[in-house]
């Protein structure tokens, strides 16, 4: 495990109201993959953790309480497709949006 995960305690408080145990586990794992990706020491770990973070986020969106499987196109698919379009645009730009205030 990389130094970032061992040496620093980072607490994120969330209101778990309405979340299932599965939701909570997915959120925990998403945070782990993000931290591993940010602190990766080699290329294979960086790519694998980044891929795993995206897969975990996809699972979270698909298991959202908002997702309506009975819609013509499930909301989760629409949300993921829209997000991927935005991500695709960001991939090929030199600058990325900064969300840190």
Note down, in words, how this protein is organized.
The protein has 101 residues and is mainly α. The protein has 2 domains: 3-63; 68-94. The protein contains 4 helices and no strands. It has helices at 3-7, 21-38, 43-62, 75-91. Helix 2 (21-38) packs antiparallel against helix 3. The model has no long low-confidence stretch (mean pLDDT 84).
Please write out the topology.
Blueprint: H1 3-7, H2 21-38, H3 43-62, H4 75-91
Helix pairs in contact: 2-3
Number of strands: 0
The helical percent reads 55-70%
Counting helices, strands and paired strands, the structural category is mainly alpha
Task: Report the principal-axis shape.
Answer: globular
Question: What is the element string, with H for helices and E for strands?
Answer: HHHH
Please report the distance between the alpha carbons of the first and last residues.
29 Å
Radius of gyration using CA atoms only: 16 Å
- The fraction of residues in strands falls at under 5%
Indicate how many domains the architecture comprises. 2
Largest sheet: none
The number of helical elements comes to 4
Which stretches are low in confidence, meaning pLDDT under 50 for 5 or more residues running? none
What's the rounded overall pLDDT mean?
Answer: 84
How would you summarize this macromolecular structure in one to three sentences?
This protein has helices at residues 3-7, 21-38, 43-62, 75-91.
